Amino acid sequence: MSDETKKKAYQWRFFRSGGFDQVRIETADDLRHLGELDQKLWSVLACPTSGLEFDTRTLQLLDSDGDGSIRAPEIVDATRWVYAVLKDPDVLFRGADGLPLAAIDTDNPEGARLLATATKVLAYVGKPANAEISMGDLAETEKLFAPEHQNGDGVVPAELAGDPHLAGAIARIVETYGAVEDRSGKPGVDQARVDAFFAAAQQVSDWHAQAEADAARVLPLGEGTAAADAVFDAVCEKVEDYFTRCRLAAFDERAAAALNPADTTYAELSLQSLDAATAAVAALPLALVGAGRALPLSAGLNPAWEAGIAALRDEVVTPILGAREVLTQTEWQDLSARFAAYRTWKAAMPANPVAALPVADVRALLADGTCAALTRLIDEDLAAETAAAQVDALERLVRYNRDLVRLLRNFVTLSDFYARHEKAIFQAGTLYLDQRSCELCLRVGDMARHSTLAPLSGTYLVYCECNRQGEAPMTIVAAMTGGDADEMMVPGRNGIFYDRQGRDWRASVVKVVEAPISVRQAFWSPYKRIGRMIGEQLQKFAAARDKAVDDNAAAGVAGAGAKIEAPAVPAAPAAFDIAKFAGIFAAMGLAVGAIGTALAAVVSAFLGLPAWQMPLVIVGAVLLISGPSMLLAWLKLRQRNLGPLLDANGWAVNTRARINIPFGGALTGVAALPPGASRSLVDPYAEKKTPWKSWLFLVLLIAAAVTAWQQGYLDRFLG
Fold it and tell me: Does 406 share its domain with 326?
């Protein structure tokens, strides 16, 4: 980098907290140059859009690619955009809900559009144009996006048409092609539906025009052709059957007898209860079959088909061929040809929902410029000052005005966490458990995944399942950085969790990741371990003795029973073995003597020291026992790191954000009496004190004095 470039480089200011340097974000110039800051100096490079104590909608607007994560380039882009459209970016540092309109830069084209949109919005909600605009104003959608107002979404409801005819056209389009919901919540139409409707309408009109050009052939009965075709189709197959039988009879006279019903058929029918709807009757020919015979249209018909043939005569034959009582095969073929043309035309009907509408209505919509009028309405709506995109951009600006700087103080730096003026956005609330309050609590979506990475933080972690009536359960992890953990139990230890809204949740411990909490705890841990070990051994010894007593008692009862059942045989008394008891007492004496000698040697050596060295020896002995544990705890406490806790939740922490001993102590509050509180030491239920401790101390003191006298150490003081 040249000297000239270095001179022009922005002079950043840093502060040290958490064991690393953090940049100060305090002025509009800091925002303007944020993109120039080396990302190696950023505290965080990415964070999730969920599970944070931060406005979810703001996070979604920042997440430009919608991948569920906010990255450093998206933060830089948002900062540049806000700086460009604001005349006074210093308003961002207020973090207020309202944005003064005077802060918007009208020299910027987008800023000018935002100001016009804001002015229109304030007018809709009934506020003066020189006021601030807030999220509450943008939330009044029933006023902002009333159906009578153009709102820029390109959807026109019937209420916006302003003309009964256009409103009716919109209703027709909604009926056939469905509705698009306007931002007011009303059903409407957009350009795609308007274009689709009128394209379909033109197809339907052209299709009807084809029939009208050859009406005599395609529509032999005009508008009644469709009804006549239905009548014709109902008997077409049966009439074809009749004329085919007659043609076979003409081909061979012998066929006539076989093609007419046999006597046995009638004999079978005679045994049934018959009516015109009987299937066996309907299966018979329309009329008697004969060579070259015409189809009778009145008399001599199969009873099952009389109604159908009568309808054919009245609605098809008479209107086309004139009145007659019989129908020849040639006339039938002429009728079939006429209806075949109609059916071919009908098969070519456009496959769209407009075809079901009356053709007169369709052509009226095509002829009076309705399509152009609707397109003009849609264009005017899209060009409105309260266009959907403009309202979204205005919402983005208002939200960034309130939230952006706060996010920067939890992303570019972690100043909210370390300054502790307010909780960081990843802190979910406060857990009260085991006479302490834990401030560093995070929401956990996947405890199994989180607990694999989080232990790298070197922090004592408690995972809790939190429940509250009417709310979905959630899992949190709390970092314990103060007090002791001797009474922590898994599972079942219960506490209370207060979320950021102050609501209380029942918290139940489900998992603990152990780590050092404090040097003080490490000092006492060896003695506590020894105490636990002695207690366990005493419990084992007592349990063994209790079991031996039970076994001996059971054996005695069993032996007594055996003696009662067996014949009495006097047992010889056991001889007293004085040598055995002498050996036992000798062994006990040797053990006591060895212990006494060892204690005497220690006491003698201690008393042989100059007076000023005795406290040093005591301190040295204590350090010898507690020192390794304290040193190990001190080293681990210095390595505690916030990063793995956040990384396990989807963050990308870019630094070693340490939780040192003083800061850790501030994150966990331990129970203490408030200042000025009075305290009574009288406990009516206190355990009665026994003098065994005093007696033990006195015995040890006398033993030490006797040993010192025997060794001659007291001669120096008594001589």
Answer: no
Q: Are 435 and 91 in contact (CB under 8 A)?
A: no
448 lies in the same domain as 411: no
Judgement on whether residues 238 and 276 belong to the same structural domain of the protein: yes
Residues 402 and 293 in one domain: no
What whole-number distance in Å separates Cα of residue 389 and Cα of residue 306? Answer: 70
Give residue-wise pLDDT tens across range 18-32: 888 999 999 999 999
- Banded model confidence at residue 529, pLDDT cuts 50, 70, 90: low
Domain boundary among 628, 651, 670: 670
Residue 40 within any structural domain of the chain? yes
Model confidence at 36: pLDDT above 90: yes
- Residue 684 inside a domain? The answer is no
pTM of the model: 0.61
Q: In what order do the strands lie in the sheet with 156-157?
A: 156-157, 187-189, 180-181
In which element (H, E) is residue 47 found?
Answer: strand 44-48
pLDDT in tens, 193-236: 999 999 999 998 888 888 888 787 788 888 788 888 888 888 88
- Could you list the residue range(s) of the whole structural domain that residue 445 is in? 427-515+640-670
CA nearest to 430, candidates 674, 670, 671, 667: 667
Say yes or no to pLDDT of 443 above 90.
yes
Distance CA 352, CA 24 (A): 64
Q: Domains in the chain: how many in total? A: 3
Does 656 share its domain with 508?
A: yes
pLDDT tens-digit series, residues 660-709: 878 888 888 888 888 888 878 777 777 666 666 666 667 767 766 666 66
Cα 3 from Cα 204, distance rounded (Å): 77
Q: Are residues 392 and 455 in the same domain?
A: no
Q: Note whether 407 and 291 are same-domain residues.
A: no
Report if residue 408 sits inside a domain: yes
CA 239 to chain centre: 69
Distance CA 311, CA 314 (A): 5
Determine how many CB atoms are found less than 10 A away from the CB of residue 703: 14
- Are 404 and 79 within 8 A, CB to CB? yes
Of 635, 657, 638, the residue nearest 646 (C-alpha): 657
Q: Is residue 130 part of a domain?
A: no
Residue 217 pLDDT: 79
Q: Is the per-residue pLDDT at 103 higher than 60? A: yes
